[in-house]
Amino acid sequence: MNYAVISSNPFTTTKNLINKKMSEETKKRRAFIRAHKFAVYVDPISGEGKVVVTKKND
C-alpha cells in the first residue's frame, strides 16, 4: 500500500524533483481535505460502510 504523510523532515533522492502545476480543482480538493476530518465506520455484520466528515476546529 502506498501512502503519503505531511512532514517537515527533509529527504534525499538521486533524481531531480519535478514541480507540477496543480489545477484549481486539485487545489480546492486539497484545501477541503486539510480542513476536515474523515472517519470511516463499517458494520461488521452487514458490511456496510459509513463515512463521517467533520470540519476541523483549528
Your description of this structure?
This protein has 58 residues and is of the alpha+beta class. It has 1 helix and 2 strands. The chain has one helix at residues 24-35; strands at residues 36-42, 49-55. The protein has a two-stranded antiparallel ribbon with strand order 1-2. Strand 1 (36-42) and strand 2 form a beta hairpin.
Give me some keywords for this one.
single chain; alpha+beta; extended; 2 strands; 58 residues; two-stranded antiparallel ribbon; 21% helix
Average pLDDT over all residues: 87
Please outline the major beta sheet: 2 strands, antiparallel
Shape: extended
Task: Supply Rg.
Answer: 17 Å
Order of strands, widest sheet:
1-2
Question: What is the gist of this entry?
Answer:
This protein is an alpha+beta fold.
Secondary-structure blueprint:
Blueprint: H1 24-35, E1 36-42, E2 49-55
Antiparallel strand pairs: 1-2
